[in-house]
Amino acid sequence: MPNDIIERAAQAVRHHSAGRLDAAETAYRAVLAERPDYPVVLHNLGVLLASAGRVEEAIIEFQKAITVDPNYEPAVLSGAKALQQAGRYEEAAAAYAQVIVINPEHYGAQLALGKLWLRLGKRDRAMDFFARTMDLRRGENRAGNLDPSLASTTRAKLLHDIDQFRYLATQKRDSERVDTLARAYEFAMKRIEWSSDDNAIVDLSSEQLSLLGESYNYPNFIADAAELPSDTVNPHLDAGTISKAFQTGTPGITSFDGLLTEEALGRLRRYLLCSTIWFDFSHIGGFLAAYLEDGLACPLLLQVADDVREKFPEILGDQPLTQAWAFKGLAGDIPIDVHADDARVSLNFWVTADDANLTPGRGGLEIYTVPPPADWAVQDYDQDKAEIRTFLKGQENKKIRIPYGDNRAVLFDSRLFHGSDAPNFAAGYENHRINITMLFGTR
C-alpha cells in the first residue's frame, strides 16, 4: 500500500482522536475514494458515524469492512453494537455470534449475547452465555488477564467465605470438602498481614494464594435454582393499585410486601446462601456483591424478572432486564451511598428474614424524590458520589425512607438518587442483609 495512503489514513485518525469529526470524516472518505477496500478506514468511519448517531450509515461501513475481511474482529464487533443500537436485535445476535467464532474467548460478546437473548425472551439461551462469562473469568481455563478479585482479598471477605463453608457443612453439602476448605482458609488468614480495617483490600502473594488453593473466588458450589412450573410472583398482589401508586402517589416510587411466592423466595434464598458466587468485595466497602454475568444468573432469577414484567406491564412495559446484582452486607456501620442506576426502572427487594434486622423500621432504602438534572449521566459509583452530594445538599426533606422487610419490594425510577441504611443485622451467616436489584430498560 502506498505510503501516502497510510499517512493520510493516520492523519484522519489524528483528526478523529482530537474530536475534529468533520475533518476526520472528509479525510476517511478521501482515502476510501482511492482505496474502497481498506477495512481499517471503513471501520474507523463507521465508528465515527455511530458516535454521531448516524447508526444506519455506520452499519453500511462496517458491512463493507466485513465484506473485505470477514475475520476482521473490530468491524464485526462494532457492527454488532451498531445493529443493537439500531434495535435490530436478531441481526445483532448473529453478529456477536460471529465475533465468538473469530474469538471464542471474547468476554464482551458473550455478555452482550446473554443480555440480547434476555431481551428476545430466550432465558435458556441467555443462561448459556452467562455461564460462559463466569467461566471466562473464574473457570479452570480463565481467559485473558486474571480478574483482580482472584489475587486480592479483604479480611471480611475471607471470614465470610469460612462462615459459608461451615454453613454448607451443616447443610450436608460435601461436608468433608467444605470443612477442609474452611480449615485451609483459617490457616491462610494467619499468614496474611491485615490492617485494622477489615474491608481494606490486600494483594495476595503467590504463597498466600497457594494456601487458599484453586478454590479462592471460584464457583465451588452452586445450588439448584431451576425454574418453577408456576409463577414466581405472588398472585395475590394488587398490581393495579401498586401501579397507580407508582404513577400518582409519590411519582416514580412504590413499595409493597410479599413480592414472591413462598416457594420462589425460599429457593432463591437457598441459592444465595449456598452458592459460592460472592466474588466482588471491592465495589462497596462492607459489602459483597454478585452480578448477573458472574454467578448470580440462574433460571429461577431470570424467571422472576419475566414474571415481574408480566405482573406490572403499566410500570415495566416492554423494558427488558438489562442487569441484576445482589449485595450482602457484612459491616453494620456502612451503608450503600447515594447513587443512580443506569436504567429506566429499578426493582429492589430483600430476602433475609426480618428477625435478623436489629433495628426494625430501618435498614432499608432511602430515595430522594427530587429528580436529577435532565442531562445527568451515570458514570461510576465512586466517581458520582461527590457530585450527587453537592446536588442533594439541603434537600433532606425530599427523601423518603422505606424500611427493610423480608420479601418487600421497591419499584422506582432509576434516575432517582438512592442509597441504603447501614445494615445493622444479627451475627451469623444466615443473617447477613441481602438485597437483589434488577434493572429494566435503558435510557
Give structural notes:
- There is one protein chain.
- This protein has 443 residues and is α+β, with helices and mostly antiparallel strands.
- It folds into three domains: 101 residues, Serine Threonine Protein Phosphatase 5, Tetratricopeptide repeat; 68 residues, no CATH class; 202 residues, Jelly Rolls (Sandwich), CATH 2.60.120.
- It is built from 16 helices and eleven strands.
- A six-stranded antiparallel β-sheet has the order 3-9-6-11-5-4. A three-stranded antiparallel β-sheet has the order 8-7-10, with no helix packed on it. The protein has a two-stranded antiparallel ribbon with strand order 1-2.
- α3 runs antiparallel to α4 and α5 packs antiparallel against α6.
- It is globular.
- The two termini are 43 Å apart.
- The mean pLDDT is 93.
Name the descriptors.
443 residues; alpha+beta; Serine Threonine Protein Phosphatase 5, Tetratricopeptide repeat; six-stranded antiparallel beta sheet; 11 strands; 46% helix; 12% strand
- Name of the CATH homologous superfamily of the largest domain: q2cbj1_9rhob like domain
Number of helices: 16
Number of domains: 3
Largest sheet: 6 strands, antiparallel
CATH top level assignment of the largest domain: Mainly Beta
C-alpha termini separation = 43 Å
Class inferred from helices and paired strands? alpha+beta
